[in-house]
Amino acid sequence: MSYRAPTEDIRFVLNELADLDGVLALPGFEEVSGDLVDAVLDENARFVEQEIAPLNRTGDITPAKWADGVVTTSPGFKKAFNEFAQGGWQGLLHEQEWGGQGLPKLVGAPVSENMNAANLAFSLCPLLTDGVIEALTAVGTKEQQALYIPPMLQGRWTGTMNLTEPQAGSDLALVATKAVKQDDGTYRLSGQKIFITYGEHDLAENIVHLVLARTPDAPKGVKGISLFIVPKFLVNSDAGLGARNDVWCASLEHKLGIHGSPTAVLLYGSGKGDVGSGAIGYLVGEENRGLEYMFIMMNAARYAVGVQGIAISERALQHATAYANDRLQGQALEGSKGPVAIANHPDVQRMLLTMRSLTEGARAVAYVAAAACDKSRRDPDSGVRARNKAIYEYLVPIVKGFATESSVEIASLGVQIHGGMGYIEETGAAQYYRDARILPIYEGTTAIQANDFIGRKILRDGGAVARALSAEIRSTVAELEEAAAGEGPDTDGLALIARRLLAAVGAYDNACSFILKNAQEGLRAVFLGSVPFMMLAGVVNAGWQLARAALICSHRSKAGTGSSFYTRKFATSVFFAAHILPRAESLSHAVLEGSVTIRYMNAATES
Ligand SMILES: Cc1cc2nc3c(=O)[nH]c(=O)nc-3n(C[C@H](O)[C@H](O)[C@H](O)COP(=O)(O)OP(=O)(O)OC[C@H]3O[C@@H](n4cnc5c(N)ncnc54)[C@H](O)[C@@H]3O)c2cc1C
Q: How remote is the CA of residue 175 from the centroid of ligand 1, in Å?
């Protein structure tokens, strides 16, 4: 089944939950009208549905190939990338100064979601290029920006992120790639990077690698890492391509999923190129501040990977919904003359609604985060900027951790709804499951997101952002209670959402207090509950956004301006409140029992 952009839900979230109007009113977005946003979304839907989605299966069954250091991407990818470049999609969010369109992140989020839902493996290349552009925009020199950003925006070159080495995965303090300064101010890099997404390919003329490496006298650990630009082909002063640099693709990995995305082992400094031994690199910013700079790219990329989670969830949901309405099996519980579509069975409805409500909840959280990011950069009031920055940074690990973990659950339910056919590759449901599985791993595993969430987003400000958001959630509960006390067909649904959301935010507040209280004496107990705590935050935030959606739907229905979309959305919110929000309490128990449980852990995990 092909992909249809979920434009109605996207528009609802943009307009009703994420304050698109407020974002478009920010300085710098004067020329971005609501009509322009609509036109971008419509054209994006057309492009991904017609050009990118049909290649999803092609990439899965015909992965990129390696031969003698040359990588050929899956059939059709090169043409599609060319059309992506011609359409100006890479420049959507970036500075107009370099030829970008300078649109808000809030508009970029649905565009990126649609691209990734259509074809996750293909869309990884633009995703990483976005990260490189963002990092250079923030910390590159004017010369570096002028040289490297425009060709990437035009889709003539692409970008990669080179962090991982065999001994340095989650722990980047162990990065060992060497960078030695030359008399002309450039550096020579040598070492091995692994798992580099689109580290080599035939989609573009040149590849701009951003590489973490260590100078000879650098301090040990993360404080001794520097960031370098290493282009595959050196760039002449006239911006034309020059010598082949000494960075080579030794092999591609064979993977569980995202087969269409080449994952490369890169060797720096094997002496095969036109430049002698050692890849020529250019320092970005100052020596030993590389990790700090890379975090700029990682935050953007972590957010983007969270959006990938929503994307694959939406694709799996669409596939499973179509199958469940088509597949005839079993009698209706009320009795029927022949087999009914499995979508009639309450348990299949439970699975479909679990998929839908988790997807739509995560989408709402992600778009609200994008709006906060836009406001943090452009609001004229410094207080508003600071508050939104804190909210965005608080939400990034939730978007990454919760949306990607949920995507695996959702894709797995998609397989389940297909029954035995889900386990057979031809239906496509299995591909979503395999593709989704990488999302909680790369760009920082779920545990690394949870460490970031607790360490930088809870402990550092003493829980200030968490508490402020809890207060807002409680205001929504009060609104729900008031609406539930009124008249209308939705009052029992509203009351249910109010009850469950209140219990969930209470569970979150208790878990948060435990973490703050035990941060000094009981760190191991705190971190035993770190992932449950972050997932708890995800459940509560998604439940909150869906509760806000339910209030809007209910007002619409009372005002007689409802539609089948609003009816479905309300039902989705009620389902989330009844079936997913109660997870908050169980997750909080895992956190709160940490002080006792931790004493038993070492004995239980020895090999
Ligand atoms: C398909 C694919 C594409 C990738 N693309 C890129 C890329 O483009 N560029 C790039 O640089 N890298 C890339 N990676 C690497 C990826 O980011 C790493 O695999 C990931 O960060 C995890 O590192 P690791 O594999 O070494 O696992 P490890 O760090 O060894 O982790 C193993 C397990 O231990 C846990 N763990 C480790 N440390 C901690 C801790 N401090 N607290 C709690 N738990 C911990 C982890 O959560 C995990 O469950 C890619 C990987 C894959 C598979």
A: 13
Tokens of 34: 């609501």
210 pairs with which residues across the strands?
161, 229
Cα distance between residue 190 and residue 214, in whole Å: 10
Contacts of 546 (CB under 8 A, 6+ apart): 357, 360, 361, 364, 497, 572, 573, 576, 577
* CA 32 from centroid of its chain's CA atoms: 24
Residues 370-426 have pLDDT tens digits of 999 999 999 999 999 999 999 999 999 999 999 999 999 999 999 999 999 999 999
| 227-243 residues labelled b (16+ CB within 10 A) or e (exposed) | bbbbbbbbbeeeeebee
Distance, CA 153 to ligand 1 centroid (Å)? 28
Backbone angles phi, psi at 499, to 5 degrees: -60, -50
Are the CB atoms for 389 and 280 separated by under 8 Å?
A: no
Beta strand 241-244 with 178-181 is unpaired
Kindly state the average pLDDT of the residues 35-57: 97
Residue in 163, 445, 456, 524 to alter for ligand 1 test, most ligand atoms within 8 A of Cβ: 445
Q: Is the pLDDT of residue 1 over 70?
A: no
Rounded to two decimals, what is the model's pTM? 0.97
Q: C-alpha angle with apex 116: 114 to 117, nearest 5 degrees?
A: 65
| 551/556 Cα distance (integer angstroms) | 9
Task: Map tokens 């679990």 to a residue.
Answer: 354
Active site (annotated) includes residue 443: yes
Query: What are the structural domain ranges in the chain?
Result: 462-607
